[in-house]
Specification:
Largest sheet: 6 strands, mixed
Radius of gyration: 25 Å
CATH class of the largest domain: Alpha Beta
C-alpha cells in the first residue's frame, strides 16, 4: 500500500530537497505550507533561500501536470498540493494555528483510509499528530547517532612487543584492525597499561608517531591526550578540515585559536585568521543588536575575545608596550584577525586563511556544506561545538551539521576529528559539566 507523507513547513525549510526524499510514495503539501513558504521567501538567510528553492522546484514540477491532482517525480513518487482546509470535528484543536491545518490534512487523509505519515521537525506538532492517532516521524535523512559517533581515536590492547616496536620505529603495522585515515590509536600493553604509545593512522593498518613539532601552540600545552591529538591535527598543514566536539571547558575553541595564531602570526602559513559563529540565541538576525556591524559583532563574539585576550596574555612579554586588549584590537584593526558573521560568508571564496567556525552545532547540514564549499586554495577550516547545547529549535544532537560532517567525512584524507571529553577550564567548570 503506497504511503502518503504529509510534510510540515519546517521540513522544507530545513532541507529544500526533502520533497524528493520519499521515492515511490506520495508527498503531500497542504496549501498552508505553500502560504508559509511565501512568508519566508523574502528572507535573506538560509530559511529564505530554502523557501525560494522549494518554490522554484514546485514550479518546475507544475509543467508535468496539475499539482492539485498530483504529478510524477523522477524518483517514482508523486507530489500533490491539497487546497482543502477541513477541520477536525470533536477535538479542541485551534484551527487558527497554521500547524493545525497541516495536521488536519494528514488526519483527513488517514480518515479516508490512506496510509498517512506526518513528517515534522517540530516536536510539539508531532505530539499533537500522535494524539490524533497518526503515524509521525522526524525528517532523518541527514541524521547521525551521537552515541555511536566517530570519536577520532581508539584504544588497542596489544602485546608489549608491539609497543616496543612502535617506540623503536617511525611506522608501525597493526594486524586485525581497520583504521580510518587520521584516526589516532592509543597502544596499551595488555599486561601494563602504563606502557603505551599514541600514533596517527596513515592508512587502514599503519600508524605513525605524532609530530613533536605539534606539541604546543602559542605557549598553550595540551593537558590531556585528546588535546594533544587535537593539536596534532590543528597544526598539521596536510589536514584541511578539523572537527572538534566537546562539552564546555574541554578547550576546543582555545586550542583552535592557539593553532590559528601560531600558524598565522608566527609561521605566516596563512594570511589571516578568520573566526565566525552562527547568530542563534536571542534573535535570528544581527540587526536585533544596536550599533554598527563591528559593535554588534563584538557582543556576539565576546567568548572569542575572552579566549584571544587570554592567549595574548601568555605572550605578554612580546607586547610590553600595550595591554592584551590593545593587542587584540590592533590585530583586528590590521585585519590579521577577522571576526565575521556567517551571514556574510556565503558567496565568498576564502583562500590562504585559517578559518574557525565556533558553535557549529547550531548549523544545519546544508549550512555546513555551504560554508565548507567556500574554502579556497591554502585554507584550513576548523569546526568546533557541543552537540548537547543546541539553540536552533529544529536541530538536535543527531541532526545538526557538526555531527553530520564528522560522520560523513571520517576517514577521508585531509580531514580529522577528535571528541574531547575532559573539562580542563577549571575544577568548578568540570563539576558543572559532569553533575549539573
Amino acid at each position: 500500500m503506497p504511503k502518503f507523507f504529509v510534510l510540515d513547513t519546517n521540513v522544507l525549510l530545513h532541507n529544500s530537497a526533502s520533497i524528493f526524499s520519499f521515492a515511490n510514495n506520495t508527498v503531500v503539501l497542504p496549501i498552508t505550507v505553500i502560504e508559509e513558504l511565501d512568508k519566508f521567501k523574502r528572507n535573506n538567510d538560509e530559511l529564505g533561500r530554502n523557501a525560494r528553492h522549494v518554490i522554484r522546484a514546485l514550479d518546475q514540477l507544475r509543467s508535468r501536470g496539475r499539482l492539485g491532482d498530483g504529478v510524477e517525480m523522477d524518483n517514482g513518487g508523486t507530489l500533490m498540493i491539497t487546497v482543502e482546509k477541513k477541520e477536525i470535528p470533536g477535538t479542541c484543536i485551534d484551527h487558527s494555528i497554521p500547524d493545525n491545518w497541516i495536521i488536519a490534512t494528514a488526519y483527513n487523509l488517514h480518515q479516508d483510509g490512506k496510509r498517512t505519515i506526518f513528517v515534522s521537525k517540530d516536536i510539539n506538532a508531532r505530539l499533537k499528530a500522535d494524539a490524533l492517532g497518526l503515524d509521525v516521524m522526524d525528517f532523518e535523512k541527514e541524521k547521525s547517532d551521537l552515541n555511536s559517533l566517530y570519536t577520532g581515536w581508539q584504544t588497542l590492547l596489544v602485546p608489549p612487543t608491539v609497543v616496543d616496536g612502535f617506540h623503536q620505529d617511525d611506522r608501525q603495522a597493526l594486524e586485525g584492525v581497520e583504521l580510518m585515515t587520521n584516526e589516532f590509536v592509543l597502544l596499551q600493553d595488555e599486561s601494563n597499561p602504563k606502557h603505551s604509545g599514541i600514533g596517527r593512522a596513515v592508512d587502514r593498518n599503519h600508524i605513525l608517531h605524532m609530530n613533536a613539532k605539534f606539541e604546543t601552540a602559542w605557549k598553550v600545552r595540551p593537558r590531556s591526550k585528546e588535546q594533544r591529538m587535537a593539536l596534532d591535527l590543528l597544526l598539521d598543514p596536510k589536514v584541511d578540515l578539523v572537527t572538534l566536539i566537546g562539552q564546555a571547558g574541554t578547550g576546543k575553541t582555545l586550542l583552535a585559536l592557539a593553532a590559528g595564531l601560531t600558524t598565522t602570526l608566527s609561521e605566516e602559513r596563512y594570511e589571516k585568521l578568520l573566526v565566525s559563529r552562527p547568530i542563534i540565541p536571542l534573535g535570528r538576525d544581527i540587526g536585533y543588536l544596536p550599533g554598527t556591524k563591528d559593535e554588534k559583532m563584538k557582543l556576539w563574539m565576546q567568548p572569542i575575545f575572552d579566549n584571544l585576550s587570554y592567549l595574548m596574555s601568555l605572550q605578554h612579554n612580546g607586547y610590553l608596550e600595550e595591554t592584551t586588549q590593545q593587542t587584540v584590537s590592533r590585530l583586528l584593526k590590521e585585519e590579521v584577525v577577522e571576526m565575521e558573521a556567517l551571514t556574510y560568508i556565503r558567496g565568498r571564496s576564502i583562500s590562504k586563511q585559517f578559518v574557525i567556525i565556533d558553535e557549529a552545532q547550531n548549523l544545519t547540514p546544508h549550512e555546513v556544506k555551504t560554508i565548507i564549499s567556500r574554502v579556497g586554495e591554502g585554507t584550513k577550516m576548523v569546526l568546533t561545538g557541543d552537540p548537547h547545547q543546541i539553540d536552533n529549535p529544529y536541530l538536535d544532537s543527531n541532526s545538526n551539521g557538526l555531527t553530520y560532517t564528522v560522520e560523513r567525512l571520517k576517514g577521508h584524507a585531509g580531514c580529522g576529528h577528535i571528541t574531547l571529553t575532559k573539562s580542563e577550564r577549571s575544577r568548578l567548570s568540570a563539576l558543572a559539566a559532569d553533575y549539573l
